[in-house]
TrEMBL record:
This is Malic enzyme. The lineage of its organism: Eukaryota, Fungi, Dikarya, Basidiomycota, Agaricomycotina. The active site is at Y101, K173. The gene is malS. Belongs to the malic enzymes family. A divalent metal cation binds at E244, D245, D268. It comes from Hypsizygus marmoreus (White beech mushroom). Divalent metal cations. Prefers magnesium or manganese.
Amino acid sequence: MSDSAPVFRIALRGDAILTSPRFNKGTAFTIAERKAFGLTGRLPSRVNTLEEQCKRAYDQLKMRDTPIRKNSFLQSMRDQNWVLYYTLVSGHLRELVPIIYTPTEAEAISNYSHLFRRSEGMYLTFIDEATMEEDFLEQTRERKIDLIVCSDAEAILGIGDQGVGGIGISTAKSAIYTLIGGIDPSKSLSVTLDVGTDNETLLNDELYVGWPHRRIRGEAYDIFIDKFVQLVRKYFPNSLLHFEDFGVTNAQRLLQRYRHTHSVFNDDIQGTGAVTLACIMAAIGVTKSKLSEQRYIIFGAGSAGLGIATQLRDAIASTENMSMEEANKRFYLIDKYGLIKTSLEESHVREDLKPFMRPDEEWEGVPTDEGCVRLLEVVKKIKPTVLIGCSTRSGAFTEEVVKAMAEGCERPIILPLSNPSALVEVDPRNANEWTQGRALLATGSPFPPAKMPHGKDYIIAECNNALIYPGLGFGAMLSKSRRMTDTMIIAGARRLASLSPALIDPDDALLPDFGDAPEVNFEVAVAVAEQAIEEGTAGVDWDKSEVRDKARAKVWKPVYGEYAYDENGER
Ligand SMILES: NC(=O)C1=CN([C@@H]2O[C@H](COP(=O)(O)OP(=O)(O)OC[C@H]3O[C@@H](n4cnc5c(N)ncnc54)[C@H](O)[C@@H]3O)[C@@H](O)[C@H]2O)C=CC1
Ligand SMILES: CC(=O)C(=O)O
Ligand SMILES: [Mg+2]
């Protein structure tokens, strides 16, 4: 990964270059550059190094006393100077990722209209559908875009419909692509698809900055989304289109509709499935068992729950030579109406959940709550080895549930994945205590370590899709893959699992530390690109042995370039 300064010919002068986050260097502009770009009178005399700027910025950040104030400060820095922002956050990844991403970003998004200072990314609004192409081109003309992250904001993290505030998740996910995946920020685009909101608080808020209208659904919604996807395909046919936090009725449907014609990725389904698969592969390395030998309860059968079930099922079927039907039988999915089983009303079971439906006969005689078989009863009956939460239901894994599970297996694998932190199904420190340190744990948002009975810290791994999606995406972009295939995703998950600290010490974290996420994701990207080449989906004609060096050369690093003024240069 070369740190040598890139050279740019730039057509911006004066305030125009100072307000360009891509090219602004602030007090780091050299004397020669100040003269060439008309900046001498616009900057104080001293020229700072990037290191000095970072020190000053970090001191200023520390003066902000709450996570949300730190989040606003960092957002404003990102609007001003990308190199400084990404250098600062990269230097303090473990401390600052929770500020720019979950859990703090959830608070920023839910207060979006009140915290609003300036626009970021692209806002495509339903009422402006007629001019969508012009609006799209206004921001993308003459740009080379490799990555588009979009959200319609119907299911942001675990906090539901956030309307136009969804731009916050698109920009946060894009920033993580850069920080962890090494994607050049000038080649990514963050989009909110504002199709209205059903969030009453937002609809009644006079300061709401989005389109104050109920959410558009049905055919009109599909036409709007399709228009956007076709623009992406027309102008950036080789880009990766990342879908984030769509509602459960649209997420899987849109993925299936577009994944065969473009490189499309749904993070909540595929990214979450992949990171959870890696986490469980690491956990069964500790318990010395196979994926197919587990009994899985997935609590919360929405986008993430279905994505996890599907990813695990596919991995069992493909790596352990088992039929899909047989592999499906390892899973027990639970949603609001209890266990997904055959006699549940049709309206309570989405079509895509049907392969995982349990037969009624299996549950005869099991106590129900108005006909619903609840989590505790399922745990008691099937004695799960793996319990995964993606329900947004804080505290659902009660002491009784966790203890009942621990009675039935030596090392229960418990992954309460709901975000943000306040929605976690069980505080991992409680789960650790209730199982006398036997549980193998990971969460969706960061948590402090738990204590093992012998006094050692047990590090709670962060099983968040951000630990893998930047690498999956980078691997697909690097190999110019025409599709993001399931086998590419499994290759990335395997590589991540192989880096688990628990494989060396069973009492260590199930997944690598977030502080190591850039190196880890680099490995994931290499695995994905190698797989794309092997299976023929790659658009490059490299040999697999070349991938690592090609990837190194492509990683974007936050370093100031050397600038020369050129009226025909970049803007
Ligand atoms: N750790 C990670 O990487 C990820 C975590 N998540 C988290 O998972 C949660 C769910 O996200 P999505 O699947 O995108 O949302 P979703 O809305 O598609 O799914 C949530 C599901 O939970 C169900 N549910 C709600 N209350 C329940 C209850 N009392 N009992 C059982 N099920 C219940 C809902 O009916 C729905 O099917 C969120 O908190 C989200 O932040 C999502 C994606 C990635
Ligand atoms: C992590 C993530 O994608 C979510 O919570 O929705
Ligand atoms: Mg998400």
